[in-house]
Every structure is written in structure tokens, then in C-alpha cells.
Amino acid sequence: MMFRRISQLTAGLALYGFSIALFIRAGLGTAPWDILHQGVARLTGISTGVVIIVLSFLILLLWIPLRQRPGWGTLANAVLVGLFVDLSMPLIPRADGLLWQVLFLLGALVLNAVATACYISANFGPGARDGLMTGLARRTGWPLWRCRTLIEVTVVAIGWALGGVLGVGTVAYAFGIGPLVQWLMPVFAIPGVHRGGAKVEAPAVERLPSTAP
To answer: Residue 205: inside a domain, yes or no?
Structure first.
């Protein structure tokens, strides 16, 4: 059981990093947080992966007033996603032409959904960005969707102003990632693993709070 959970977490985070790199190479827009990562990377000259790692730990500092507690998966998420983005970027060529851009985008979306279902089902703690959203919701009493919208609109605006790519890929991610992850969760659910106080039995399907790393 534990070996499967650790393997699934590691594989999910590695694949998540690869999917981010694929989104970037598609050049049609990325997920909201990755627009910010791109913008900061362009401003500073630091690689996107390093930006993801640094921002992850800065965001974790915001957990303190929200009284959020990180798990092992939280720390692994903070390091491994950015690491695998940087490892993947040299392996993926830039998409040449609209057809390849669309194929890259669709591939990135599906792989991101698989990665998300993998690491969520491992249940080793939320990513820094997810924890920020759920912690804010708990402390303010606002509904989860309002917290997520506020955070993601803010990071998109800042990232776009810094030069991050906002485009059709961002829209595809916003509307496609939730249903895809929901559909894939039963595939990666681990019988007997508890999430949120409820026992998860495959093929149970849960509502997902978010899919950000």
C-alpha cells in the first residue's frame, strides 16, 4: 500500500512537471499559475522550474497565518514539479505550426489530468497552491470557488503583465481539467486510503477542490 502511494505520488509529480513543459512548448497559453511562473521567469531570467520551486516555498509561508499544515506530499510537490519542468524542457521541441501546437496542447491537458489524479489519490497532502486556496476558504468562510477565482484571476493578471502566455490553452485548461481529473480519479484511487476523513474505495469519485500543483 505505502509503496504504491509513494510511487504514485512520485510518478504523478514527475508527469505534472512534464505536462507543464509541454504546455509551454505548445505556445498557446498555460494554466493560471503557470502564466505567473512564465512571467517571473522572463522577468528574472531564472528557469521556469526554479521559479516554481521558489514560489512554492514562498506560498507555504502564507500557510502559517492560515494554520495549514504541510504533508510529505506538499514538500515533494514543491520540489519535484519544478525539477521535472526543467528536466523536460530540453527534451521537448517547440511546436512547429498550428497543428503541432494543438496536438501538444491536447497532450499536455490529458497528461496533466493523469498526473493530477495520480498525486491526489496518493493522499500525502495538498500542493502549496491548493492549500492556499483551501486555507483561505476555511479562514474567511468564503466558498471554495470564490477563493479559487480570486487567487487565479490575480496570478493570471500578474503573470500576463510580466510576459506570461495567456491564450486558448488557458481556456482549455480551465474548462477541461476538472472533468478529465474527475473521470480519471477512479483509475488511480487506492482502496483503504483516507482523504478528508472519508475512506476512498475504488471506483469512488470525489469532487475535486482544485488541480493546481
So the answer is: no
* 211 domain residue, yes or no: no
The label of the residue with cell 505556445 reads 27
Nearest to 160 by CA among 46, 39, 34: 39
Could you give the number of structural domains in the chain?
1
207 domain-assigned: no
pTM of the model: 0.88
pLDDT digit string (tens) for 130-145? 999 999 999 999 998 8
- Decide: residue 185, CB within 10 A, 0-12 exposed, 13-18 middle, 19+ buried: buried
